[in-house]
Write a structure and sequence with these properties.
With 170 residues, this protein is an all-alpha fold. The protein contains eight helices and no strands. 80% of the residues lie in helices and 0% in strands.
Length: 170
């Protein structure tokens, strides 16, 4: 029962922070709300007894990625950020809502076609060990994650270099 209460609290924190992250007009507040979302997801990992994933979430995402965002925000000139204020137009809101509904319909069709819900229900009884997760994270085989991690690290490095280049425009 206490796990369910803690999960509900974390879910409310994650959802509220995510909504505030995308609706706030101040970029530093958005980065702070993103940090709260990442902390909440780490809390869910700890709640599920996936301590390795929780620690990785805290160190890599909540610590590293959020700090990269904040440094990139600080490197960009304040005058550049002040010119980025944009007004909401009705046509853009309608187009965004329509694109979101099309994306949701696509995901639902793919889930129903591939019987994802039935597969999850069948897999609910089986438990994945931490040894299996660890081997998948460091393997380079068919279901390995080493190559995607390397691509992400190169992408983040490119983002940092891009932020530095943008800040040194003079």
């Amino acid at each position: 029962m206490s796990n369910m209460i803690l999960f509900c609290i974390l879910a409310v924190v994650i959802l509220a922070s995510a909504v505030m992250c995308v609706t706030t007009k101040r970029i530093m507040r958005a980065a702070t709300f993103l940090l709260f979302v990442l902390f909440g997801i780490a809390g869910i990992y700890f709640l599920l007894d996936y301590t390795f994933l929780g620690a990785a979430q805290l160190s890599v995402y909540a610590g590293g990625v959020t700090m990269i965002y904040i440094f990139a925000i600080q490197l960009v000139n304040k005058r550049t950020l002040q010119g980025l204020v944009e007004r909401m137009k009705g046509s853009r809101v309608v187009f965004g809502a329509l694109a979101s509904l099309i994306g949701l319909a696509t995901v639902v069709v793919v889930f129903l076609k591939n019987q994802v819900i039935n597969n999850f229900a069948a897999m609910a009884d089986s438990e994945v060990s931490m040894d299996t997760i660890g081997r998948a994270l460091v393997s380079s085989g068919k279901h390995g994650y080493v190559l995607p991690f390397e691509f992400i690290s190169v992408f983040l490095l490119a983002c940092i270099i891009g932020g530095i280049v943008i800040s040194r425009k003079e």
